[in-house]
Amino acid sequence: MPSGLTEAKAALLAASRVAVLAGAGLSAASGIPTFRGQGGLWRPSETRTLFEGLRPESLATPEAYRRDPELVWTWYRQRFELAAQAEPNPAHYALAELQARVAECSLVTQNVDGLQQRAGARVLELHGNLTHSRCECCEHLGPLALGFAIPPYCSRCGHRARPNVVWFGELLPQAVWEEALAAFAQAEVALVVGTSGVVEPAASLARLAKDGGAFLIEVNPEATPLSHLADVTLRASAVEGLPPLLGKGHAAPNG
Ligand code: NAD
Ligand code: ZN
Hints:
CATH class of the largest domain: Alpha Beta
Bound molecules: nicotinamide-adenine-dinucleotide, zinc ion
Number of helices: 8
Radius of gyration: 19 Å
CATH architecture of the largest domain: 3-Layer(aba) Sandwich
Structural class: alpha/beta
Number of domains: 2
Distance between the termini: 5 Å
C-alpha cells in the first residue's frame, strides 16, 4: 500500500467537510488527453501539436475566436465529440460516491468534459463545459449534439453562439468561483487530483484550504507546484489512487 494512504483515508473518513479540485488527469483513463503532464498534448519541448499545427494558446483564447471562429469551433467540436463518446471511469464514480457519503462535499472541476456529472456527481464547473454553446448576444445555453453545424446559432435570439468554456484571459463564472472559495476555505480535508496546479486562480484553492488548516491530499502521477503543500501525496493515476483512497472500508493497519 503506498505510504500515506492510511493517513489520508483516515482523514477523509473523519471529515464532514471535504473539497475536491479535479483536473484533466481525472479523465485521462476515459481516453481524453490532458494538456500538460503525462500523456499530455501540450509539451513545449516536443514537436507534438494540438490541432492543425496550432498550440492551445492559439485556440483557447478570445483573440483566436475573433480571428478564426470556424477553426476554434472545429477544435471544440472535436473535443466535444471525444468527451460525448467517452465513459466515466472508476475515479469519476469514486468521487460521486464520496459526495453521496460526506455531509458537505464540494466537487470543483476544471474539466469541461461533463464526465463527473455523468457519473452522478454535482459539480462546480470553473471553466464551463464542452457540452453547450453560449449565445454571444443573450448568453442562452444550447445543448450540442454529435455532428453539430459550425458555428451554432442561438435558438432564442438567432445570434452566433460561442463555446461555453472559459478561455485564457477570461474571468471565471463569479457565483461558481465564490462557492468554490467558500468550500475550500471551510474544508477539513482538501483533495486535488489530476491537475497540474499551474492554471490560476483554480490552483490557489489548494493553498486557501491549506492556510485554513485543511489536511491536503494530492493524487497525481507527477510532481506539481502544489506537491510541497500536500500532507499526503499519492503518486498514482486517478484510477489507481482514488478508489482505494475513497472506498468505504478502512485501509489495512500496516498500510
Ligand atoms: P493539465 O492538462 O494542465 O494537467 C494534467 C495533470 O494531470 C498533470 O499534472 C498530469 O501529471 C496529471 N495526470 C496525467 N495523467 C493522469 C492520470 N491518469 N491520473 C491523474 N493525473 C494525471 O490539466 P488541468 O490542471 O486540469 O488544467 C488545464 C486546463 O485544461 C483546464 O482549464 C481544463 O479545462 C483543460 N482541459 C480539460 C480537459 C477535460 O475536461 N478532460 C482535458 C484537457 C484540458
Ligand atoms: Zn441568444
